[in-house]
Amino acid sequence: MLEQEGIEAGSGEIKFLLERLRLVGEDPKRVIHSEDLRRWLQYYPAELPK
Fold first, then answer.
1. Tens digits of residue pLDDT in 28-45
2. Of 42, 41, 33, whose CA–CA distance to 16 is shortest?
3. pLDDT, tens digit, 9 for 90 and up, residues 3-26
4. d(Cα 9, Cα 32) in Å, to the nearest integer?
């Protein structure tokens, strides 16, 4: 999806997105859109666990 949408992400960003996807993926009715990925990346790395 990242490649299709022209979103460039490094390995740290991809790990961050995967963690977010795992959290959101617990809701079976939730559909992930490219806008979600873009919005989440706006908060990277501010939301990384310390």
1. 888 888 899 999 888 887
2. 41
3. 898 888 889 999 999 998 888 888
4. 17
Phi, psi of 12 (to 5 degrees): -65, -40
Residues 6+ apart with CB under 8 A from 38: 5, 7
Tell me how far the alpha carbon of residue 18 is from its chain's centroid.
6
pTM (predicted TM-score): 0.71
Give the integer Cα–Cα distance in Å for 50 and 31: 28
Which are the contacts of 36, defined by CB distance < 8 A and separation ≥ 6? 24
Question: For the chain, what is the radius of gyration of the CA atoms?
Answer: 11
What was the pLDDT predicted at 2? Answer: 87
